[in-house]
Amino acid sequence: MYAAPPEIETKVFTRLPDEFREKGKKTLWSQVSQMSGDIHSFLEGPSFDLEGNLYCVDIPWGRIFRISSKGEWTLVAQYEGNPNGLKIHKDGRIFIADRLRGIMVLDPDKGVVEPLLTQPNLDPLRGCNDLVFASNGDLYFTDPGRSNLNNLTGRVYRLTAEGRLELLIANAPFPNGLVLNAAETHLMVAVTRANAIWRFPVVMADDIEVYGDSTATPVGLFIQLSGGHSGPDGLALDQDGNLAIAHSAHGTAWLFSVGGEPLLRIRSTAGQRVTNLAYGGSEGKTLYITESGSGSILTAEMEVPGRVMFSHM
């Protein structure tokens, strides 16, 4: 056990404008997710483009928003789906992990969302959650469906830049956010229902014979979190390899060292539903956090800038 780390508080950067807040409505997503009350929005998937705009999704209403550096909101697209994770390709396309429809691609100029991967090998995806690009263009994504500790069926995939789909993990209790370490030798996955971060080596296609198949990689427990009514959600990495974790329903984002030691606790000042995070700002040292209960984007100033994302390479 470690001593409690230092704490800092967030600031509210911006909140979803009232004109975009749905009132008096319920959705199938909110009922299946056991969300209490009417849902005005549920923000997730923050990611920055080259112009410094922050994109995020609104899961129950199928919306993609763009937020300027001044905190101004624009509805870029709305479609029939439940977008959850969002990452931007270096060619400007926006990739979306959709719980209802699979992996989708958004043209931000046209506002058109089209399917990329929905039913690989005639095996439907169960409910995609989040995604991240490697520097070579490979796309890693989680497909938890409704997995939990009593239903160990959550999956992690890699879609190579050449279009080959590889199953990496097949038995996780709700794999969620994910990042590659700085050297891109290991993948770290937030496993929500286990309240933990798993870590395992990235096995390339040429090396699969070492393990027999791609799902036999040696998975390790990197961090075991404690407390709360949920577990880790979104992840982000800084340039020193430190891992930022959004601890859902806990009102906290954590910063852990490369070795898994807690360095910082970042407390939400707007609510408990801290869902995801991304580094941005002029020097890349501002951590932007989605707080879905209040429909807010929070910020915290960090000492180390975030790792450069594939969109900015």
Structure characterization notes:
By secondary structure, the protein is mainly β. Helices cover 3% and strands 44% of the residues. The strands form six sheets. Strands 1-22-21-20-19 form a five-stranded mixed beta sheet, with no helix packed on it. The N and C termini lie far apart (38 Å). About 2% of the residues have low confidence.
Task: Please outline the helices and strands.
Blueprint: E1 7-9, E2 11-15, H1 28-32, E3 43-48, E4 54-58, E5 63-67, E6 73-78, E7 83-88, E8 94-98, E9 102-107, E10 112-117, E11 131-133, E12 139-143, E13 154-159, E14 165-172, E15 175-180, E16 186-191, E17 196-201, H2 208-211, E18 220-224, E19 232-237, E20 243-247, E21 252-256, E22 262-267, E23 274-280, E24 286-291, E25 296-301
Parallel strand pairs: 1-22
Antiparallel strand pairs: 2-25, 3-4, 4-5, 5-6, 7-8, 8-9, 9-10, 11-12, 12-13, 13-14, 15-16, 16-17, 17-18, 19-20, 20-21, 21-22, 23-24, 24-25
Distance between the termini: 38 Å
What's the number of extended β-strand segments?
25
User: Which blocks of ≥5 consecutive residues have pLDDT under 50?
Assistant: 208-212
**Widest sheet: strand order?**
1-22-21-20-19
Q: For the report, how would you describe the main beta sheet?
A: 5 strands, mixed
Q: What features would you highlight for this structure?
A:
313 residues, mainly beta, Neuraminidase, five-stranded mixed beta sheet, four-stranded antiparallel beta sheet, 2 helices, 25 strands
